[in-house]
Amino acid sequence: GAVVSQHPSWVICKSGTSVKIECRSLDFQATTMFWYRQFPKQSLMLMATSNEGSKATYEQGVEKDKFLINHASLTLSTLTVTSAHPEDSSFYICSARGPPDYTDTQYFGPGTRLTVL
Amino acid sequence: KQEVTQIPAALSVPEGENLVLNCSFTDSAIYNLQWFRQDPGKGLTSLLLIQSSQREQTSGRLNASLDKSSGRSTLYIAASQPGDSATYLCAVNNFNKFYFGSGTKLNVKP
């Protein structure tokens, strides 16, 4: 089946540094990927939609200059948290829209736990 | 904007009970609805996907129903087991965007 990986699975960084998270579709091409954020004991909130070869579309309230998204190939999207602060600590999950069929299924990565000290 | 609500927020049952988790959504113009399981600190595991034209889907002890006109879906778990303990999330696909409920945290006691 369709598999999505994320790297790293967890990361700890100092305040003010930047962190890059990768999302890969392993066995299919994904023209569209999505980035979500989940705070403790809360549900997933869509941050942005990433389309291969074009600029990402950000949800209201998400700072595009802080959360840089690059979808340079059909199997890779990256999220860079720039100048990270403790309030950016969260669980980040990506998903990829599956191969074209009638189901419009999204396949989710295992998530990346970011802790900013 | 689509809003998804899940009731109850938490549920604790003894092993062997049948149980129902509820999900409601405000915009009925959906493409599909998906139920996920999330274990603590982990990603999402897809359980069932129901297309907007379908009324229900079954997988093993799980059965999910969809009433699009009333904006409701239920996840039925038969003969619950301690291994079913997790948070269950429903997600509504509004043509290009998934909206998630806040989840139901299930604890099945041995």
Characterize the structure shown:
The complex is a heterodimer of chains A (117) and B (110). In chain A, strands 2, 4, 5, 6, 9, 10 and 11 form a seven-stranded mixed sheet that branches. A four-stranded antiparallel sheet of chain A has the order 1-3-8-7, with no helix packed on it. Chain A is mainly beta and 117 residues long. Chain A has no helices and eleven strands. Chain A has strands at residues 4-7, 10-13, 19-25, 32-38, 44-51, 57-58, 67-73, 76-81, 90-97, 106-108, 112-116. Chain B is mostly beta strands and 110 residues long. Chain B contains no helices and eleven strands. Chain B has strands spanning 4-7, 10-14, 19-25, 32-38, 44-51, 56-59, 62-67, 72-77, 86-93, 98-100, 104-109. In chain B, strands 2, 4, 5, 9, 10 and 11 form a six-stranded mixed sheet that branches. A five-stranded antiparallel sheet of chain B has the order 1-3-8-7-6, with no helix packed on it. The radius of gyration of chain B is 13 Å and the shape is globular. The model of chain B has no long low-confidence stretch (mean pLDDT 93). The A-B interface holds A 6, 32, 34, 36, 42-46, 49, 91, 93, 95, 102-111, 113 and B 31-32, 34, 36, 41-44, 46, 49, 51, 89, 91, 93, 95-103.
Distance between the termini of chain B: 41 Å
Query: Biggest sheet of chain A, in brief?
Result: 7 strands, mixed
What's the number of extended β-strand segments of chain B?
Answer: 11
**Biggest sheet architecture of chain B:** 6 strands, mixed
Could you state the order of secondary-structure elements of chain A as H and E? Answer: EEEEEEEEEEE
DSSP helix count of chain B? 0
Uncertain runs of chain A with pLDDT below 50, 5 residues or more? none
Describe this protein with a few key phrases.
heterodimer, A: 117 residues, mainly beta, seven-stranded mixed beta sheet, four-stranded antiparallel beta sheet, 0% helix, B: 110 residues, six-stranded mixed beta sheet, five-stranded antiparallel beta sheet, 58% strand
